[in-house]
Write a structure and sequence with these properties.
This protein starts with 9 loop residues before the first strand and ends in a 12-residue tail after the last helix. A hairpin with a 1-residue loop joins strand 1 and strand 2 (13-17). The chain has 271 residues and is α+β, with helices and mostly antiparallel strands. The chain has helices at 21-43, 45-65, 100-113, 147-159, 177-188, 191-215, 220-237, 254-259, and strands at 10-11, 13-17, 87-95, 121-127, 133-139, 163-167, 171-173. The radius of gyration is 28 Å and the shape is rod-shaped. It folds into two domains: 1-76 and 176-271, no CATH class; 87-173, Alpha-Beta Plaits (2-Layer Sandwich), CATH 3.30.70. It has eight helices and seven strands. The chain is 49% helix and 14% strand. Strands 3, 4, 5, 6 and 7 form a five-stranded antiparallel sheet that branches. Strands 1-2 form a two-stranded antiparallel ribbon.
Length: 271
């Protein structure tokens, strides 16, 4: 086989047989468009996987199989809950904490005193920074209804010998909540997300290997249509990361460079 130009070449399908210049240009355009879209899809495949999982699998997993407010299974290794209710944070400024033992004492006092209200007191984080503080994450009601729980936490802290010098108003916590819920759902049942990844990986492999076979016709025009399609997508969208937009970075790692290659040219077929 050798590179050649001209018409009368079949590309993948018997019907893709260019008998004149017009048909040949259509074949080149379709080949270019498919390779361009394949490269774009590859660069955004993580986003596509997340979107498909949230749309097709995640909602039914969280609403149909896991009850609101139910704890995450122990093997997840996280105190996070899978919930739909909004979460709020309240910070208690505490005087008198000087060591790790004080931190454990304060945290135990709040959790023990709130044992009957764990559906509201979601988690407690105690630290020595900024003079000592305890951050409570609350869930399951309106901010105006949290006053009793906050007051109860203050009483529990003062009962073990520490002074609470002030509290903040409940602040809505929305950062990373969707990711936390999704991570908990995946840890319980990873197969829906695996199915989505398998679907998009299969689609990517099918298109990339079809383009490889098209290039192996050794038709010069088809070969360069494939190359230009992949190159043009990088030229126009190379700065757009799969995890979100942002400015381009000059220093690219070898792993990122490998991600820009078609599946047939990579060392391994990652997801």
């Amino acid at each position: 086989m050798f590179f050649h130009g001209g018409l009368h070449d079949m590309v993948l399908f018997k019907s893709w047989y260019a008998c004149n210049v017009g048909q040949y240009l259509v074949v080149l355009f379709v080949t270019f468009a498919v390779s361009f879209l394949s490269s774009v899809f590859r660069s955004q495949r993580k986003k596509v996987n997340q979107f498909l999982y949230r749309t097709l699998c995640f909602r039914c997993t969280t609403t149909g199989k896991m009850r609101v407010g139910s704890p995450v299974p122990a093997h997840i290794g996280s105190p996070l809950l899978v919930q739909e209710d909004p979460m709020y944070t309240v910070t208690l400024s505490i005087d008198g904490m000087t060591c790790g033992a004080c931190v454990n004492t304060v945290r135990t006092a709040i959790l023990t005193g709130s044992a009957q209200n764990r559906s509201v007191v979601h988690s407690v984080t105690v630290q020595l920074d900024h003079g000592g503080s305890a951050q409570l994450t609350l869930q399951g009601g309106e901010p105006g209804l949290f006053a009793w729980h906050i007051s109860h936490a203050v009483e529990n802290v003062e009962a073990v010998g520490f002074a609470v010098r002030g509290t903040t108003e409940p602040a809505l916590l929305v950062k990373n909540q969707r990711k936390q819920n999704q991570a908990a759902a995946v840890a319980k049942n990873p197969y829906p997300q695996n199915a989505v990844k398998a679907l998009t990986t299969g689609l990517q492999l099918t298109v990339d290997y079809a383009l490889m076979l098209a290039a192996m016709t050794f038709n010069t025009g088809v070969f360069f249509a494939v190359v230009l399609g992949y190159s043009t997508s990088t030229l126009l969208l190379g700065h757009v990361k799969s995890t979100g937009g942002g400015s381009a970075r000059i220093d690219q790692s070898a792993e990122e460079d490998d991600d820009n290659l078609p599946e047939c040219c990579r060392a391994g077929h990652g997801t």
